[in-house]
Task: structure prediction
Amino acid sequence: MEVKEILRKYGFTFKKNLGQNFLTEGSLLRAIVKDAGVESEDIVVEIGTGAGTLTSAISEKAKHVYTFDVDTCLQPVLAETLAGKENVTINFLDVLKISDEKLKEIIGEQPFRVVANIPYYVTTPLIMRFLESDLNCKSLTVMVQKEVADRLIAEPDTENYGAITLAVELRGTARVTRNVARQLFHPAPKVDSAVVHIDIDDNKYEIKDKPFLQKLIRAGFQMRRKTLVNNIGASLGITKDRAKEVLVSLGYSESIRGEALSIEDYIKIAEALHD
Ligand code: SAM
Result:
């Protein structure tokens, strides 16, 4: 039976507030699994199970899929669409609300890949949650609104460049693997989407004090029109004179703005401010 028929059979009603726009096209689902780089030894954490179509495609390739959704109305649907898939564990939990410890209890300590097709308002917090945690995450493959994709891969000094661009740069490399037209979802949302794959490489930079660097980056974008010196003073408790002195000693203008700096610049400045 087709997924759409199964949803009808159980009287499933799509909840707009949970971003329930499902993918059903087999070739697209397989392509997303390929974008995610899923191989036979991989443990995958899937966020937003929906009707289980992407889950099913992932389970064809992965060792095990731990999938999470918040909507328990999907239970009878998933019992049918994922019947007999022994390498799938369904969890009705909100991944943004459970602790790292709880997640480790469920999936174990082994490295894992994240694959997520979730409501657009959850994508940024979700990406930040995994990038800023110490969980052993190898990659993130996320369906996002096209505007969010532009932010994830933006260059310094452009409108789209922001704290999230740098959070990605700090841990790895992001690329847009494909654009997905709205008509490919059921029901069709109002916007087009893109799949972004972020490869995480924890040896990319050696950072002495990561929380301090993360604070500095957030401060750098707090008020985009203000200079870095002003933003640092307000949120890191560093005097303007000290901040100016450090910037000038490193060869930057004292009126430089946070949005003009690359991740390497932030790392350099964080270390000098720290010393
Ligand atoms: N992966 C499926 C697909 O591709 O067809 C479903 C995608 S649908 C866009 C998003 C799913 O995320 C919905 O089933 C919704 O119930 C679920 N969801 C919404 N908020 C969530 C959250 N905080 N944690 C986990 N799942 C969530």
User: Anything to note?
Assistant: The pocket of S-adenosylmethionine is lined by residues 18-23, 47-51, 53-54, 68-71, 94-96, 117-119, 122 (CB under 6 Å). Residues 120-132 form the longest helix (13 residues). Residues 210-274 form a domain with the Helicase, Ruva Protein; domain 3 fold (CATH 1.10.8.100).
